[in-house]
Design goal:
Elements: E1 22-23, H1 24-31, H2 38-41, E2 45-48, E3 68-71, E4 77-80, E5 98-101, H3 117-125, E6 129-134, E7 137-144, E8 149-150, H4 163-174, H5 186-197, E9 204-207, H6 214-226, E10 231-234, H7 242-250, H8 258-261, H9 265-279, H10 316-320, H11 325-335, E11 351-353, E12 359-362, H12 368-375, E13 383-387, H13 391-401, E14 406-410, H14 425-428, H15 430-434
Parallel strand pairs: 9-10, 12-13, 13-14
Antiparallel strand pairs: 1-8, 2-7, 3-4, 3-5, 6-7, 11-12
This protein binds S-adenosylmethionine.
């Protein structure tokens, strides 16, 4: 069932019924070329620029913690300061008559703004920020059009959505214009993402036929715009385009040869495109040129991290011997939220506590008590994997750890944890094994 924003301007072409929701104030900017500035003449409401609720603290996005300088007598916003390191204390010293306003709430909790510095400067330039006095404090307000529902149109007409724009991006990022045929414009995919996730800033977006990687690019553009923390998972094979495959085969190269595989879509396009656009620079040091429609420069890259995984077959005998820990670790990192830098470990120690991510693994269950003590030093750990084949032992350990952690059982034969569409031997009993 489709619930869409903005009934005021019904579609001139047709309405789509597909479960999309769009926000008039943002999506329609690109979605409607014939926009007549109606939004600007609407009455705007004042919404705090400081975030509140889940994910709103400084530690959640420290690049959105910076001062906004306000003239204390006229309440004019004059300047936007730089974000500071997470371990630095905010400076409250006034500069001339300009007082710094930090996104700290009345209970002294360090929160963050709804936009990064670039976004705040943009909104300021557009006249959409205002400083007010409230309960003896200066608060920054964002002026927003009231939320309305609308039905996105069937035809989206905007030059920014054209395939040529997609091809232009690929060329700017990869430096070649024949890497991928007909890539989509990231803006059109961004609008699709906005339709479905405008109110879900922590959404996980999956594209299992990733092609040139437009979906990831669109996700980070969306995050940069609204300060969201959406994650994106791309999956692709590494197929070589037909004509190129014939050329390579004439040279005696075959699928599986590293020279052949380098020409595949994943190695040649998806991975480098995603990595370079996040870093703002190619691996050879070439800084990306050009800018996005909102003025953000390609060279600035994005805040998100990125990891590349290659799916491979594993030898079940290795897994049975418990030698597959290293191979399974990336999956655990993903389950725990794909946060921080990923590490590689052999699993030869009784437990493993990730250095940069909020998860830990108890590898030898007999060491549970020591493991629990070690966890005390890491208050950020949220997810605990317990390797045991005994459901009872798992239940007991989970009880001891308490609700503070998300406890997940891992069978010693790690493969069993991620098996899908297969008979559960434990549930089916031995009869199933004998067939
Ligand atoms: C039409 S393209 C996607 C285009 C992409 N959304 C874009 O705009 O850049 C489909 C992609 O799916 C990949 N693909 C095809 N079969 C696949 C499979 N079985 N598993 C994973 N990826 C596959 C192909 O390599 C191709 O690049």
């Amino acid at each position: 069932m489709c619930v869409c924003r903005a009934s005021r301007r019904a579609s001139k072409v047709a309405e789509i019924h597909g479960g999309a929701i769009g926000s008039r104030s943002s999506a329609e900017r690109l979605l409607d070329e014939s926009s007549d500035n109606e939004t600007a003449s609407q009455e705007l409401s004042e919404v705090p620029l400081r975030r509140w609720g889940q994910g709103s603290q400084r530690k959640h996005r420290h690049s959105m913690f910076f001062p906004i300088y306000v003239d204390v007598s006229s309440l004019a916003i004059k300047e936007v300061g730089d974000p500071i390191a997470l371990d630095s204390a905010p400076d409250f010293t006034a500069k001339d008559r300009l007082s710094p306003v930090w996104p700290i709430d009345k209970n002294n909790i360090e929160r963050r703004w709804r936009y990064g510095k670039e976004g705040v400067e943009r909104e300021l330039k557009n006249g959409l920020l205002k400083a007010v006095r409230e309960a003896g404090r200066i608060e920054i307000k964002h002026l927003e059009a009231p939320t309305e529902f609308f039905l996105p149109k069937t035809l989206w007409l905007n030059k920014a959505f054209s395939g040529a724009r997609g091809a232009g991006f690929l060329k700017a990022i990869l430096g070649t214009d024949d890497a991928f045929s007909y890539p989509k414009s990231p803006y059109v995919v961004q609008e699709l993402i906005r339709c479905v996730t405008h109110d879900k800033p922590a959404a996980i977006i999956l594209d299992f036929f990733a092609g040139s990687g437009t979906t990831l690019h669109a996700t980070v553009l969306m995050n940069a715009e609204d300060g969201g923390k959406r994650q994106c998972l791309l999956v692709t094979n590494n197929e070589v385009e037909e004509k190129r495959a014939r050329e390579l085969q004439k040279q005696g190269l075959r699928p599986g040869d590293s020279e052949y595989e380098k020409a595949g879509i994943c190695q040649n396009v998806t991975w480098p495109r995603c990595k370079y656009s996040l870093n703002g620079v190619r691996d050879d040091g070439t800084v990306l040129a050009g800018s996005y429609v909102n003025g953000r420069e390609l060279k600035d890259g994005f805040d998100e991290n990125i990891q590349f995984f290659s799916l491979a077959f594993v030898d079940p005998a290795l897994v049975e011997r418990g030698d597959a820990f290293e191979g399974v670790l990336p999956i655990l990192w993903l389950i725990a939220g794909a946060i921080g830098e990923r590490e590689s470990r052999r699993g030869s120690t009784p437990w493993y506590i990730a250095t940069h991510s909020p998860f830990a693994v108890l590898i030898r269950e007999t060491k549970f008590n020591e493991f629990r003590k070690a966890l005390r030093d890491r208050t950020d750990i949220r997810c605990v994997f317990l390797v045991t084949d005994s459901d009872d032992n798992f239940a007991a350990m989970r009880r001891e750890l308490g609700r503070r952690y998300r406890s997940i059982q891992l069978y010693k034969s790690y493969l069993d944890n991620f098996r899908i569409n297969a008979v559960d031997k434990r549930a089916a009993g031995d009869d199933a094994n004998s067939e």
